[in-house]
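Researcher: Please generate the 3D structure of the following complex. Treat every line as part of one assembly.
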Amino acid sequence: MTTYTLLTLVALIAFGFLVGRRRAIAWAGKSLKTHSRPRYHGYYVGLWAGVPALALLLLSLISAGALIDMMVLAGMPEEVIESRSDSELDLLLASVKNTAAGVGFVSDDPVVLAAAEHLNELQVGSEWVTSASVIALVLAGLLFAGRRISPSFGARPAVEKAVKVGMIACAGLAIVTTAGIMFALFFESLRFFERYDALDFIFGTTWSPQTAIREDQVGSSGAFGAIPVFAGTALIAAVAMAVAVPIGLRSAIYLAEYASKRMRAIVKPVLEILAGVPTIVYGFFAVLTVAPLFRDAGVLIGLPIAANSALAAGVVMGAMIIPFVSSLTEDAIRRVPKELRDGSDALGATKSETIRRTILPAATPGIVAGILLAVSRAIGETMIVVMAAGLTANLTANPFEAVTTVTVQIVSNLTGDTSFDSAKTLSAFALGLTLFVITIFLNLFAIGVRRKYQETYE
Amino acid sequence: MSPDFGRHLRKRRAAERRFRWYGIAAITIALGVLATLFFTLIREGYTAFVQTEIALDVHLDAEIIDPDGVRDPEKLSRVRYNRIVEAALIDAVGGPGAVDPAGLDEIVSSGAQFILRDIVLADPGLIGQTVRVWLPTSSNVDQANKGYVSRDLPQSQRRITNAQFDVLDRLEAGGRMQLVFNSALFVNADSRQPELAGLWGAIVGSFYTLVVCFLLAFPIGIGAAIYLEEFARKGRLTDLIEVNINNLAAVPSIVFGLLGLAVFIQAFGLPRSASLVGGFVLALMTLPTIIIATRASLKAVPSSIRDAATALGASKLQATFHHVLPLALPGILTGSIIGMAQALGETAPLLMIGMNAFITEAPGGLTEGATALPSQIYLWADSSERGFVERTSAGILVLLAFLLVMNGIAIYLRKRFERRW
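Model: Done. Output below.
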C-alpha cells in the first residue's frame, strides 16, 4: 500500500513538473515576458506537490505504529488492562500482533483474538487514511502552485529559497543527531538511575550486572559500581597508547624529516592501511595470534598471563592507532615555520638536535591534540576489546590480567536481551552516556589546545 | 681542536644516528605488524576457499524414494535421503563389514541429503538408476583432509576417529576425494554446520545497508557541506553546526548504535536486525566524513569560477550547482566512497541493533532480519569449531577484498579526475 502511494506520489510530482514547465513554455510561445525560465516553474509546482505530501507520509510511517498500539489497548476490556503491569501489557500486545499477522505463537484467547481483529482493521484503515490524505495533499499542492505561477511570478527565487532551506535542514541534522544522542542516552540513563543510585554507579567498586531472575536467588542482585569498568578501560587504553605514541611519533618524525620523497610516497599509504582495516579484523587477530603468543611467552618466563589479558587487547589496539598518531604528528611538525628550523641549523645544531630542541617543542600543542584524539579513540574502540578483553570486572593495574571495558559491558548487557526494564540493559545507556561525555570532552579539549597554541606562530 | 671537542662531536653524531635508527625501527615495527596481520589471515583463511568432496555412486532406490511410483514432488522432497547417502558410502569403501560402521554418518556433510533431494526433484527420471555425485564432506573430515588433524594425537583428543581415518584412506585410495572451489562460501547464507555456512546472506545484508546509508548520507552530506561552505554567514549557528560535525566525527561508533536502538527501534518501532535501521545508523555515522570531504573539495574550487558564473548573470545557487559542484564532484565521490568503506567495516553499531542474529537466508527486503559482513565475521569468530576459524579468516579476506576494491576506486577517481588549480 505504502509502495503504491509512493509510486503515485512520484508520478504526480513528475506530472506537476511537466505541467508547470509546459505552461511556462506556452507563455514564451505567446511571447509574454516571463520572470523565470520554464524549468523553474516546473520545479516550483513539483516542490509544492511533493514536499508536504512526503512529510505527511513520513510522519504517518513513524507515528502510525504507536498510535495503533494505543488504540488497540484502548479497545480491550478494561479489566484486562487494569490487571496487568506495563511489561505484561507489552507481552500481550506482542501476542496480539503475532496473532494478527498469523506468525509465530498464535493465541486462542478470545480477548487476544478480538484485539487482533481490531488491530487488522485499524491497520487497513490507517493505510487507507494515510494514502487518501497524502494523495489529497499532493493534489492540493498541485492546485495551489498551479494557480500561483504566472509570467510575472518569481519561480526561480522561490525554488532557490526552498533549496536553501533544504540545505540548512541538512546541516542542522548534525545538531539534531547530537541532540538525539544526548536525549536518548540521558533519558535511558535516568531510568537506570531510578533503579540504581547514581553515586553508587560513579563511585562503586563492584560491577556484576547479573540481576536475579527469581526473587530468592542469592548473590546476584546486580551491582553497578562502574569504577572497575572505567579502570579496565583506562588500563587497556594506557597499554594502547604506550604502543601507539612512541611508534607513531618516531615514524612521523622520520617520515617528515628524514625519509626521501619516494620512501614517503610508499610508506605513508601503507601505514594508512593499518587505520583502514576494520576493527573486527584486529579483534580476531588479537584472539587468534597475539593473545596466545603472549600467554606462551608468559609461560616461558614463568609469568601468568591471562588468555584475554589487557596486554594483548591493548597492544593490538595500539597497532590500530599508530597511523592516527603518526599522521596527526606529521601535520603538526609540518606546520612549524621554516624560520625556526633555519635558526637552529644556523646555530650549528645537528638535524636530530633541531628536531628535539626546536621543532618538537614548537609542534607540541598539535601533537598533544593528536594524542588526546587517539586516547578518545582508544576509549571508544569496541570490537577489539569485545573479542579480546575480559567480561568480568576486575579492579587491577596489572596488564597481564583480564579486565573489562565500558564498551564490552555495553555490548554484553545489550545483546540478546531485548527487555528494556531491567537495570542490566539500562546500565548500558548510563555507560554509553559516560563514554559520550568523556569523548566529547577530550575532543573539545584537543581542539582547544590546538587553537590556543597554534596561533603563536601564525 | 681540543680532544674534548672531538669526543663531544662524536657523541652528537652517534646521537644523530641513533635518532634516525629509532625512526626506521618504528616504521619497521608498524609495517611488520601489518605484514603479520595479513600473513596470519591468509595462512588461516586460504584453505576455506576450497572444500573436500567425495564421489559416491548413489543408487536412487525406487523402493525407498518413490514406493508408489507416482513421482509426487511433495513426497519426493520428504524422503530421508541420508539413508541413501550412507548406503552409497558403505558401498564406496568396500561394502558392509569392510569398515567399522561407527562414525560413518559423520563423514558426509549433513547438507548432502538436500543436494541429493534437489537432484531427484530436478530430474525424477533418475529414480531407480545409480548416479555418481560429488558430495561435500563434514567440516571435521574437511579439516582432516586439509591436514589440520594430526594422526599422531591419541584418538580421544581429535575429532576424527581411527575408524573414520580408515574410511577416508579408502576413499582417497579409490580416487573418490578431491578439493574443489568452495562455492558454498559465496552462495549459502549462515548455517550451524561450518561446511555449509556461507557469506551470501551477509553480502546481501551489507549491500542493502550500504545502499540505505549512501542514499541518505550522500545527498544530505552534500547539502550540508554546500550550505556551510558557500552560503552560511559566520555566526553562532554556523559555529555550533561545525563544532557538532567535528564532535560527531569523534564519537565512538557504539554510541551511534545506542542511538539507533533507543530512537529507531524503541521509539519509532522499526524492526530489529533490519538493514534499514543499519543503514540509518551508518548514515548518521558516515555523514561527518562526507561533509568534511565535500567541504574540502568545494574549498579547492577557485573563486574565479564562481565570479565568472555570477558575472554572466547566474544566481549564487546556479553558480554553485552548475559550476562549482560538478568541478568538486570527483573529490566528493572519493571522500564518500572512503566513508562507505568505513561504514562497510563497522561492526559495533550493528551489534546494538541486532544485526548479529543467526539468519539462514539472505534478506529479501530492507525490513527483514539480516546480518552484514562484519557482524557475520563476529558471529563466526565466536564459534569454537575449527571449521569456523577457517571461515572467519576467509570472511575477513572477502571483507578486505571489498574494502580494497572500494578504496581502489576512490584512488583511481582521485588520480584520474582531480584537478589541481
